[in-house]
Each structure stands twice: as structure tokens, then as C-alpha cells.
Amino acid sequence: MPDSTKVNINNKADQQNTFDAIVVGSGISGGWAAKELCEKGLKVLMLERGRPLEHVKDYKSASKEKWEFPHRGSTTVVQKEKYPVLHRGWAASEPIMDYWTNEEDCPYTEKKPFTWWRSYQMGGRSILWGRQSYRWSDLDFEANAKEGIAIDWPIRYKDLAQWYDYVEKFAGISGSSEGLPQLPDGQFLPPMELNIVEKDVAARIKDKYKGSRHLIIGRVANLTQAIPGRTACQFRNRCWEGCPFGGYFSTQSSTLPAAMKTGNLTVRPFSIVTRIVYDKDARKATGVEVLDAETNQTYQYHSKIVFVCASSLNSTWVLFNSATDIWPGGLGSSSGELGHNVMDHHYNLGAFGMIEGFEDKYVYGRRANGFYIPRFANLFGDKRDYLRGFGYQGSASRQGWSREIAEMNIGAGLKDALTEPGPWTIGATGFGEILPYHDNKISLDKSKKDKWGLPVLEMDAELKDNELKMRKDIVAELKAMFEASGIKNVYPYETYYSIGQGIHEMGTARMGRDPKTSVLNDHNQVWDAKNVFVTDGACMTSAACQNPSLTYMALTARAADYAVEELKKNNI
Amino acid sequence: MERRELLKLIALATGTAFIGGDLFLSGCKNAPALGGATFSENDIGFLDEVAETIIPKTTTPGAKDAAVGTFMTVMVNDCYDKKDQQTFHEGIKKLDDACQKANNTSFMKATPEQRTSLLTTLDKEAKEHAKSKGKDDPNHYFTMMKQLTLFGFFTSKPGATQVLRHEAVPGHYDGALPYKKGDRAWAE
Question: pLDDT value at position B19?
Fold first, then answer.
């Protein structure tokens, strides 16, 4: 079991505060950085700004039944007031409210609407992630260069392919091999199953679009077979509460135990990294400054390398606050790009409809996964009036007791009707690419302070013409595809979205080939401090339309490998 | 994130939105909890009878077996905004007045037939109200009572396990489970 106890923080000797590597953040990227660096023999300090959350033991709601919750999953008026941002969408639910960041303690400024759903606790959002895991292809890595958008990625698929292999094997990604150029196959565990209606719709789409469009089972970081130390997914569909079986990839279920096993890891919760300490003569970081979130005491920790994995926007917040005596805009700001090019995936729009027939079929088990329709727009000769594309995620299911039965009123008849499943329905939402725009940016708002007196982020980003055109197409294409597949009563929808709400925040410290136009180089090193690596979503040069976490894992493992090699060569 | 949940919620939202759910509310615009007005034991008994009329005990448990009256008061107290709380509280009296008018007796003293007939009328009235009401007009109190009854009942232990089917740890997935009319639905 992971040991979340603090290191002795009262020591005076610097050497006791000295490690080979410091990892800022314990989410998907931080967990991978810690595992890789520890396994390569480095003494690592992992800093988490939130509370400890011990695997299994601290998943307090995970084994309760729904009727044991006083509001059966609903949140209260008090919670709605305390967590207004969380209540803009579907993220709030009774069992997991204390997994989310306290919005009163940790405010931010919205120059334009920006929905920021954060989790400050051990494991970060690796507990709360959607687990959809897709590779990028060269269609994504080359798009900026080909279209003259922003800057070119400094890497290509061949640079990342072996690292995708590596992280998939360890994390446990289930999925089907499809041979699609836009969605490279990987090292998959057996796929989960499409249900009978989804299979039927998949066949109709294949037929109707002559093999140019595909409906496949989602590739998901839920185990369809046990792997050492972890049990297979039990199909409870309660991942977000923390899985007592370790059925999905999280820091706690996967990377943390591996890192702890080496004996090289020290974890310090309640540790807000306020800045990276920078030596201007050596042009390197010497460590980090930490504000203890419980005691308000400040500590310094020293290391040869620093991995910044605090989540996209918070990693940039740390850089904003670092080396300001040399660069007023912070470490990495010499490019003029730090804080710029914020991206996300836009969604909350698509269609749903009714399926006729299949009344003699139902499902068993709650599959925490759905179908995926990979990108087809602007690919292989297809041409739209906007750039890039989108994928769809959805599922088919039979309606349950919450359905409206217009002709029924009350009494035994209603009870009997709702005791049986209703007709099959199907629905999906698009996930669209957002281009990197220099003027979509974040900055420090020094007029507003958080609970600890630290300046907060100001968000200034919006969807632009390309995304708005794409959104129209996302709805229209799905409606047309559903209707072409024989789905009835197709109902297009579009609901509230503001940037950030995809929980796929990316950019603000992008990788590139030139220190004048990028914050990081091709190995995620800060150009101005080669022993500082930023490997979470902040590093992304474009957003593609696939869920990004698997790419962060691969980039982090690759950067950790490189960092250790460079350390051995005394290059950093 | 559970996209499936999102879709279910959207599907629900196309009927009558779940009151208190505020699913796509942009920020919290509502006043804080009412405080003050509370439910009496009599209110809970009354709500139990309303719920039992909506979901009666048959060969399987009914709303009273699931303590739906108490559940309604918890939800109204904790999850309803001030305006909806007021509508709900006034609704208890309105429902009883409607019973007096129709049957010359209070709801608690009315026969099961009188209760069923009254609530059937109120359900039709509430459905009409939902169709014609403006965005900021109050919800109909009977919509609230019916929603909370269905929600409270089917998520309760007797509702989920004896009326519907529930499997805490399914262990596997079958996407083509044979089904015949009369087989019970899954609780979730």
C-alpha cells in the first residue's frame, strides 16, 4: 500500500531536503514521472498540494449502495453554492464532492467564461479521469506545420510510438485493433464488448459510408484481464469513487505502488510548490520552494532535476512565479508564449434517438465505457469549411425507471411499467479539436488571492470561428449518421460549454523547435532551464481531438528516460 | 468522466427537468436554503400516503416500505431552492384542499379509490402545467411529489432490489442478454 506519510519536515540539514529529482504533482503525469525516475534509481520527492488519499482505504463511498447516500447521489443547495463551477455541468455528485477542489479556497478569475474542474488530492485527477485512451497519429503531429497553424510539433509519431507501447502495457488499456491511420492501434488488453444495438449501428454505418466511418468500442484504461497487483474491472461503473479492485489506471492503483516498491520515493502531501528555485549563473533550477498548506510554513527542497506535472494550468502557474528576478513573466517566458495557446476539447453537443426492435435483448453489467467514432472530417480527401476534426463518444442502452411515460399517470400500472426496461436509445457527444491561438491565454491575477495569499490565474480564452463552424458540423453529421442508420426520432442537442469543461486543458507551455517561439524543447525541457521538465498537458503544441492523457503518459516516460540519460552524461 | 451519465441526464432533461437538479445551470443563481419551514410528522405521514398512491404496494413493496415520505422531506430541505421549497410546502395544503373539494374529505381520510382518482387528475394538471409554463414560472407541486416519489422509491433498497434488479458487483458485461417481457429492469 502506498505510504502517504510526510517526510520529517523539521530537519535543519539541507542534505535531508535534497533529492535527485523532485516531481511536482501526483496525477497521471506526476505518477508516471515518479515511477520512471524511481525505477531508474533516482531518489525522488513527489509533492502533492492536496491531502493524502490512500488506495482502497480512503475510497469511503465506493462500497456503499446508492440508498446509503442521504440524497441518493444528488448534491445539496449548500454544495451548489460552495461549488458553483462544478455545478455548471455533470461533474458534481454526492459521493465524490470531497474529491473536488474547494472553490472558495482556490478561486480563479474568468475574464471570459472558463470552467476549471480541479482535484487537489493524492492522485489528482487520475482518480476522476474518463479513462478513454487513444494514440495520436502523424496526422495530428504534422497538422500545424502542414496548415501553417501556430508552430510545428518538435516530435513525430515515431518518437512516441515505443513510449505508447510502454505505457499501455503497464497501465492496461483495453481496446480493439482497427488498422485506422488516424487512430493507431496499440498494446491492448481484450476489448470490452459493444452491445447488440451498438453492433447493429456499427454495421449500418460501415455499410452506409462504405468503410470510411467506424463505430468501435472505446479504448479505455479499465482492465479486461487481471494484471499483477490489480483485479480486472468488475463492471460496476463507479470508477470516480476510486476502485476498490484497482480495476482502472490511477496513480494509486498503478504508478504509486510501483514507485514505492523501489524504496526511492518520498511523498509529501499538503505541499504547494510556490516557485522553482533558479540559479541564474548555472542557468538551472536548484529545487523548489514549498508552502505547507496546513501550517503555512515555507520549506526549500533541492534536486538535480525537477519534473513539473501539476496539471496544465497549474504547471504554468508555477513557472509564472519562478525566476521572476530574471524574467518578470516567469521561467520560460522568454519566448513570449508562456501562458498562451490554451486549448481544450469542445463537446456537450451531438444527438440521440430511439432504436426500434431488440426488445428481446438487454445487457448485464455496467460497462464504464462506450463506443467511439474516430475522426473522419478533413481526412483522406474529405474537406470541410474548417480545419481539423472531431470524434464522437456515446452508447446505446435501454431506458430505465426515470423515463417519461406520457400515457401513464400513477398507481400500480405505472409501477409495473417502470419495473420493466424501456425502449433502446442511443446518444453521443462530439469531442472537437480547438486550435492553438496565441490570444487564448492565462495570466496571473495579482489582485485576487487564494486561501494562502497566493495570486490566482486569470483565464482569457474562447472558441473562435473554426471551432464554431465545427460545432455546427458535429451536430449535423451525427444527426445524419443516426438517421442513415435507421435510428428514429433523432434529436440533435447542444448544451452549455465553456473552455476547460472538457477537462482536457492543454497548452500554455508548448513544446517546439525554437526557444523564441516555444517554452519547451523536444524532450519537454524548459529552454531556459534544461533540468526542468514539463510533461503534463501544458506541453501540448496542438490538441488533436483524442482524449489526451495517454499521450501525457508517453511523453512523461520518454522525458524521464531522457532526463536520466542526460544526468548520467552530466549534461544537466 | 461518465459520458453515459451525461447522456442519460440529457435524455431526462427532454422530459421534465429534474427539479433541484439544475443540470446545465450556468453558475448558481438561486437563493440559499429556506430554513424556517420544516416538515412535521403529520407532513411525513401525508407524503407517505401520496407516495403510496403513486407507487402502491402490490405483490412487491410500495413507497411506504421505502420510507419515501421522509426521503421527500430530506430532498426538499437540502436540494430544493427557496422557490421550489415554498411551492412544495404550499402543495401539501393545495393537495388536501383539492381532496376536500372533490371528495368532501381530507386526503388522509379519503379512500384509496378517491386518492387515486384525485392524484390522476393532479398528474394530468401537472403535465399540462409543465407544457405551458414559462421558464421562470414555478413548477407544479405534484410534479415535485411524483418525481421525488419515483426517484426515492427506485433508488431505495426495496425499490432497487425487490422491485427492480440490482447487482452490486456484476463482474462481467454481456451486451446481448436475452430478455423476455416481464423480466425486471436493472436499478441503474
Answer: 67
- List, as ranges, residues 199-228 from A with C-beta within 8 Å of B: 199
For residue A133, give Cα distances in angstroms to A139, A167, A213, B28, B40.
17, 11, 19, 33, 52
pLDDT digits (tens, 9 = 90+) for B99-153: 999 999 999 999 999 999 999 999 999 999 998 988 889 999 999 999 999 999 9
Which residues in chain B (142-181) have CB-CB distances under 8 A to chain A?
146, 150-152, 154-157, 160, 163-164, 166-181
**The three three-digit cell numbers of residue A374, written as one number:** 474516430
Instruction: Tell me the residue length of chain A.
Output: 572
Asked whether the CA dihedral A92, A98, A102, A108 is positive or negative, the reply is: negative
Reported as a single tens digit per residue, the pLDDT across B42-101 is 999 999 999 999 999 999 999 999 999 999 999 999 999 999 999 999 999 999 999 999
DSSP state of A263: T
Q: Which residues of A touch B183 (CB under 8 A)?
A: 362, 420
Separation between Cα atoms, residue B142 and residue B119, nearest integer Å:
8
Which chain B residue shows the shortest CA-CA distance from A400? B185
Burial class (CB in 10 A: 0-12, 13-18, 19+), A379: middle
The closest alpha carbon to B25, from A142, A326, A86, A145, belongs to: A86
In this prediction, the answer to ipTM > 0.95 reads: no
Handedness of CA A141, A142, A145, A147 (dihedral sign): negative
A431 interface with B at CB cutoff 8 Å: no
Q: Is the pLDDT of residue A404 over 90?
A: no
Give pTM, 2 decimals.
Answer: 0.94
Between CA B5 and CA B14, with CA B11 as vertex, the angle to 5 degrees is: 145
